[in-house]
User: Fold these one by one.
Assistant:
Number 1:
Amino acid sequence: MDFAREFGLSPQVIEKDYTLGWLLAGIAANPEIGQSWVFKGGTCLKKCYFETYRFSEDLDFTLTNPEHLGEEFLLETFSQIAAWIYDNSGVEIPADTIRFDIYENPRGKNSAQGRVGYRGPMQRRGDTPRIKLDLTDDEVLVLEPVMREVHHPYSDLPEEGIHVRSYGFEEVFAEKLRALAERERPRDLYDVVHLYRREGINPDRALIMNTLAAKCQFKGIAVPTIEILANQPARIDLEADWKNMLAHQLPVLPPFQQFWDELSDVFDWLHETREKAVLGAVQAYGGGEMDESWSPPPMAHAWHAQVPLEVVRFAAANRLCIDLEYKNEHRLIEPYSLRRTRDGNILLYAVRHEDGESRSYRVDRIQGATATNVSFVPRYAIELTASGPLHVPGAMRSLV
């Protein structure tokens, strides 16, 4: 319930995020599949890479052992995983809600789609909510997988954490570009732009492009360009479906045009014809001497503040202004940083959108903070969404 308040989302969405964490833990702990299934897709981004992101609803894996794509094997394995999850968390996965359908994919190979029902801490009545799994063994893995820690910001996080084998950052980036080229869905555009925006990450652009080329060759499609994407028939549906496919995963839906317009910057950056602007930190006076040893937690958590600070971080990540109520007045601000003074006060550093003036606001005195759909172009470095160091794989796998 704390997280539902922090993010401005329904408790059911947060419960699914919680259950996804435990399902990943169960998969990782299973001796049969833990080291041979490779996590990918939007939920991988949310749970393994980015602290402030859209909530996702399914789990995508590339399987390195084709023998695992059998209905009997999957049902037996997930029965074991369900028992492990119940013993470790209390989340119940009823046996009669575990379903796997094996089908022939467009490449003439087998893939599987699963449905796993659960009864989590909300103890909802009626239809059992479900998590979808998409499994395939014929996706090309270009780079070596990496071990990533799963973000599980809840009080029952195991002491040793949760770690899962996943796509590396460059492979995730290339895969999302390939998906955008092949189907042009709103979530792919949203993901690609966020991958580009991340501060503090300097991925190997040549490695991304080489990986993308290998994936497109495997799929039999052209390497995407902004011109190709703009002229495909799916471009019209991309804009039309923006709200329907994304709004329920986000506290506030950013404008479609903001993301589409930035896509050309992504391609220019990938082709190394432009560099990202290096912005300085926002400065604002007042509030006392700063505690230079403190920085906001790298991953989302429940702040228990008067206002939902994770909504502020979400707005910053999505370049959206905040309607801030402070001293009984409303201000439209661009959020940039959270800092702490030596006497323990947390300050929100921001810029007034109307005139560009820097300001600092004591968090304990903020009366309200709501994300708006008014977008802004950053004037300073956005420090609210800094990412931790990433492992960059150095070798490409064989494509044979």
Number 2:
Amino acid sequence: MTKIHAELGVLPIGTSSPSLGRYIANGLKKLKKVDGIRYQVTPMGTMIESEDIDKIFEAAKVVTNAIFDMGVVRVETILKIDERRDIDHSLEDKLKSIDKTT
């Protein structure tokens, strides 16, 4: 089955502090409960992997709503999706292919 990859970035807007870690942590706590996905946190966003595009959208919605639930009134959500149907590649496989060429 083909895996779908996505990069999710969320930006709470209008918070009382420039520090956003607690909002992101709450989003990740809720993301752990979404079945059918794997994810890797990076300093600039979260990589999501699933065999079902609807699970990618669900993950983005869950994270965004977790931030809204903290009282934030505006959240910018950036979702970049890479869906390839000719081969079955994991996030790790993508990194390995880069390593081979460097």
